[in-house]
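Researcher: We're teaching a course module on how sequence relates to structure. For the next exercise, students receive a sequence and then see the predicted structure as tokens, so they can try to spot secondary structure elements on their own. Here is the exercise chain.
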Amino acid sequence: MNLSKIKTLFSNHTFILWAYILVSVISTIHLYFIPEINFYVMYEYSFFHLIENKNLYPAYPKEYEDVFLYSPTFSVLMAFFAIFPTFFGIIFWNLFNTLILYYAIKYIAIDDNKKVLIWWFGLHEALTALQRTQPNVMITGLIIFTFVFFERKQIFWATCMIVFGFYIKIYGILGAALFLLYRDKLRFSLYFGFWLVFFGLLPLIFISPNQLVYLYVEWYKALVLEAKVDTALDVSLLSFIQQNIYQIEDKYLILSGIIIFCLPYLRYKMYSEFRFRFLYLANILLWVILFSPASESSTYVIAVYGVAIWYVSSNDSIDYYKIFLMIFVFILTSLSPSDLFPNFVRDQYIKPMVLKALPCILVWFYVMYDLYVGVQKKQNLLL
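Model: And here is the predicted structure for the students to work with:
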């Protein structure tokens, strides 16, 4: 097979879809036999605890490790997977996550070659996330779908993606940062309220109103308690600065990050430019991980797809610095948790120095530069 045929094959959407499906299924089967499925078991049990009118949020050490920190609505979603034996449920769960991400990218209104680059560039990081069975792959897809529906002026479905993402994992609410770039803000507010109530009351299918109120109070307490816990898993920009530069409290760094994140909104004349809006999507996907004090390795699937979106938002002219950053992200962010890196390198340098975050930090600063001054009016863009 010559290079032209190989390129055609690897650019074929159906081939890429099957690649995503196979990566999801094979990695999940491998994971099951290690075994290392604690998170999925926790999600599965959350549904059974819900219908048994139990508190979802204390520890259940006889059933799973860790504690459940997701919303009661998340437990309702797990009904679709908990009806299957765990072996099949975990496969369907990871497939569900994977397909949401694949189709979100498919429906972005950009050139096919750029979609292909996003798909392939992020696949290894998606594999890493799927092996943890957490919903980070799904959250990436939901935030991208939010952008897709905003671009199509389908505000009803854009708000659905935002609120559904929020109830699955709080990160999903960051998709709402896109709404300022579009018109119909009144409709956005009304639809947002509708979906907030709809998904919020969904557990009433299985439990009483009093039990639902109780669970939301317990969820809030669990999140507050978790926020006070110092975790060694943190691989955010906050942790990178604290470990390598200067010890400063998270709240000051997060406040600075919010200000930097929001300043491009002042360029309201750029809202009509597709590249500006697309870069804001990349900004959201990177920011939510870099400025979260609870970021861990498996959440970086969100940031890495943000990196890919940033790269394809550029003009078609070759920029060697951007190419270098893409390679840097792939090697240090995506590959560093794998066996390609010796254990002593990970344990003595990458983890203590939070180096997994460094390439994404550099890309985020580039994204902000582009949002501040790089995007100009009437520029020839992606379409």
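Model: If you want an answer key for the exercise: The longest helix spans residues 13-33. DSSP finds 18 helices and no strands in the chain.
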